Amino acid sequence: MTIGENELMATREYDVPRELVFRAWTTPDLLAMWWGPQGFTNTFHECDMKPGGTWRYTMHGPDGADYPNHSVFVEIVPSERVVLDHLSGHEFRVTATFEDLGGRTKVTFRQLFKKKEEFEQAKPYCIEGNEQNLDRLGKVLSDIAN
């Protein structure tokens, strides 16, 4: 869903406590399992989970193409939110918030692009890709909750 200028937002509710959702976002081995659209896999080269920490990884597309990525974590508030700046290719900020719904969790995933032209270029595939990302998160949460 498009909201505001240069920003996309996706939300999802999961039937797990928010501490578990936060763990899936901040544990590199778990994050590598679900980050990215359907069919993609990840190789993490560096994932320093702290404000100012570097996250370098390669996304491997289903077509065999490799997509190097570089991000920096801006803010990590336990069980509440993760904010990162994606610096390679299209520049954007991801803000993920985790709302406690009495044992369930609502995740709000916001993606704010720095440049309008990059937003317009990426919007068609990011809308679907962000939904697939949240689908993949749900699968990992289901697996680790049981």
Percent of residues in beta strands? 35-45%
**Secondary-structure element series:** EEHHEEEEEEH
Counting DSSP E segments of at least 2 residues, the number of strands comes to 8
- Stated plainly, the CATH topology is called Alpha-D-Glucose-1,6-Bisphosphate, Chain A, domain 4
Overall form? globular
So how many helices?
Answer: 3
Question: What is the spatial order of strands in the main beta sheet?
Answer: 1-2-8-7-6-5-4-3
Kindly state the percentage of residues in helix.
Answer: 25-40%
In the predicted model, the low-confidence regions spanning at least 5 consecutive residues are none
Q: Which SSEs are present, and which pair or pack?
A:
Blueprint: E1 2-3, E2 7-14, H1 18-26, H2 28-34, E3 41-47, E4 54-60, E5 66-77, E6 81-86, E7 92-100, E8 105-113, H3 116-145
Antiparallel strand pairs: 1-2, 2-8, 3-4, 4-5, 5-6, 6-7, 7-8
Helix pairs in contact: 2-3
Can you describe what's shown?
It is a single chain. The protein has 3 helices and 8 strands. With 146 residues, the protein is an alpha+beta fold. The protein has one domain (2-145): START domain (Alpha-D-Glucose-1,6-Bisphosphate, Chain A, domain 4, 2-Layer Sandwich), CATH 3.30.530. The protein has an 8-stranded antiparallel beta sheet, with helices on one face. Helix 2 packs across helix 3. The radius of gyration is 14 Å and the shape is globular.
